[in-house]
Amino acid sequence: MAIYSSAEFVKALKKTPENFYVIHYSCQSLFDDNEALSPRITSIAVSHYATDQVVSFSTHSVAEELRIAREDVLRRFDEVEAKLLQDFYAFVRERRDKFWIHWNMRNLTYGFEHLEHRYRVLGGADAAVIPVERRLNLNDMLSDKYGSAYARHPKLKSLMELNGGIHRHFLTGEEEVHAFKNCEFIRMHNSTLTKVGFLQSVLEKLVKGKLRTASRGVGVMLDRAFEHRAMKVVGAAGAAISTCVAGWQLWLWIMAI
Predict the structure, then answer these.
(1) C-beta separation of 20 from 50 below 8 A
(2) Which residues make beta-bridge pairs with 26?
(3) Kind of pairing, strands 41-48 and 20-27?
């Protein structure tokens, strides 16, 4: 099943929730102030939408498995990152046919291609590539449904403010860069977990018609109203009444013949 619109997206989430995974990751600076030519991957978190169970791959846990001391992590980061990505792709391999919901993971700068590139750079040759048509950008889906002004820039943070407030573990991109330089890998991982958890909650609210956005307009208001369960009940009742009235009028017409 191909998904090209927000309506198809919401319908599929309701019908087959087990087919969707939510992914987010953190990395080094996205600019040219890294020792490598591309940003290093520091953590990846994946949430299964149907069960809300999270699997994560992090610098601190991999370093601990490899018996690398905290003070040696940066010096031996190639080993850590390679193992992190190897574990991630082992998880993906049996789930490539599922849908992967992400937030602007579009390209080689930040995206699935970036993960694949880092894996190849570190010697990996068996990345379980997720097909392009199985990648769903939640930002695009929300823009399609509510309009591009559904939240201020930066949209992820603004959307979080609209739906319960900023989580204490949330880090901006700039804060993640500083955390990496300070070897605060658990802090970076907690931020990644926070963001993937928030994306999961956005999906749940989207399906229930309870997502708060900054969008205005009659179309959006009506869309929200008709998504509400109570309005659906009213609509069903109205349809039933209309059917009864039509049947009564038909009976009167037949009797008059």
Answers:
(1) yes
(2) 43
(3) antiparallel
Residue type, 201: S
* Residue 84, CA distances (Å) to 44, 77, 87, 213 in order: 8, 10, 5, 35
Tell me the two tokens of residue 44. 């990846």
- Give the per-residue SS3 of the chain: CCCCCHHHHHHHHHHCHHHEEEEEEEECCCCCCCCCCCCCEEEEEEEECCCCEEEEEEHHHHHHHCCCCHHHCCCCHHHHHHHHHHHHHHHHHCCCCCEEEECCCECCCCEHHHHHHHHHHCCCCCCCCCCHHHEEEHHHHHHHHHCCCCCCCCHHHHHHHHCCCCCCCCCCHHHHHHHHHCCCHHHHHHHHHHHHHHHHHHHHHHHHCCCCCCCCCHHHHHHHHHHCHHHHHHHHHHHHHHHHHHHHHHHHHHHHC
Q: What is the pTM of this model?
A: 0.84
Angle between helices 185-208 and 138-146 (to 10 degrees): 30
* Cα distance between residue 237 and residue 240, in whole Å: 5
**Residue range 14-64, pLDDT digits in tens:** 999 999 999 999 999 887 666 667 999 999 999 999 999 999 999 999 999
**Among 92, 100, 93, 66, residue whose Cα is nearest residue 81:** 66
As given in the structure block, the two tokens for residue 103 are: 């937030």
Beta-bridge partner residues of 27: 41
List, for residues 145-187, the tens digit of each pLDDT value. Answer: 999 999 999 999 999 999 999 999 999 988 998 999 899 999 9
